[in-house]
Amino acid sequence: MLHYIGIAGTNSAHSTNRQLIQFVARHYAQDATVELVELGDLPLFYKTADHSVPAAATALAAKIEVADGVIIATPEYDHSVPAVLSSALAWLSYHIHPFAGKPVLIMGASYGSLGTSRAQAQLRQILESPELDARIMPSAEFMVGHSLAAFDDNGDLKDLTLVAQLDALMTNFAIFADVNRQLTAKMTRTADWQDSNH
Predict the structure, then answer these.
(1) For residue 143, how many C-alpha atoms fall within 13 Å in the half-sphere facing its CB?
(2) Is 144 exposed, middle or buried, given 0-12, 13-18 or 19+ CB atoms closer than 10 A?
(3) How does pLDDT run along the chain (198 residues), one tens digit per residue?
(4) Which helix (H) or strand (E) holds 107?
(5) Is 113 helix (H, G, I), strand (E, B) or coil?
(6) pTM of the model as a whole
(7) What pLDDT is recorded for position 181?
(8) Distances from the Cα of 132 to the Cαs of 86, 146, 157, 192, in angstroms?
């Protein structure tokens, strides 16, 4: 079974993006495990004199490194990702590189009608930077607008069209993660073979 890390890009106690990750974890529990991680324990990013990284960041990096993929649900503040998410990604590219070659699926929920479209585009740019070097699932967007009314009392998405869209997305992400795992294993075997023949 595939194992994903789910990141809600917020430190808010009541977040519809956290609800979205929790829904994904429940709804696809037969196909994958989704471990929700919180960003609240990470301090605001700053360059340390000795290049050290907070323990909370190294612990999160270790979880990401062994996962098959990462699902990030980002809010949108002033057309951009929240500071807490940007700061977390800065720590996760500061002399550690858990996202390198890691499959990532981006989604988001917002109170307005646009469903974090601008924040998702910005997040894609950040994750594609050389310092992070994530493998973002191509042509994949999932946006929940008017998110305060999007979930029922059980925390499930009400809109069945959205659920069907998410079903297809999660199926494709599983394929993307599996292909990535095979590609990474092949590259590792090739590198080992080359090393042994020098």
Answers:
(1) 16
(2) buried
(3) 999 999 999 988 889 999 999 999 999 999 999 999 999 999 999 999 999 999 999 999 999 999 999 999 999 998 899 999 999 999 999 999 999 999 999 999 999 887 789 999 999 999 999 999 999 999 888 999 999 999 999 999 999 999 999 999 999 999 999 999 888 777 666 655 666 665
(4) strand 103-109
(5) coil
(6) 0.92
(7) 86
(8) 12, 31, 31, 24
Tokens of 141: 């967007």
149 vs 154: CA distance, rounded Å: 12
Our CA dihedral for 49, 54, 60, 66, rounded to 10 degrees, sits at 60
If one counts every other C-beta atom within 10 angstroms of the C-beta of residue 77, the result is: 16
- The pair of structure tokens assigned to 140 is 């994949």
Taking each helix axis from N to C terminus, what angle separates 117-127 and 83-91, rounded to the nearest 10 degrees? 10
Structural domain count of the chain: 1
CA distances from 8 to 16, 138, 176 (A): 9, 20, 21
79: domain CATH number is 3.40.50.360
**Residue 108 near residue 120, CB atoms below 8 Å:** yes
CA dist 134 to 64, 77, 144, Å?
A: 11, 23, 23
Domain residues for the domain of 21 are 2-197
| Rounded (10°) CA dihedral 155, 156, 159, 160 | 180
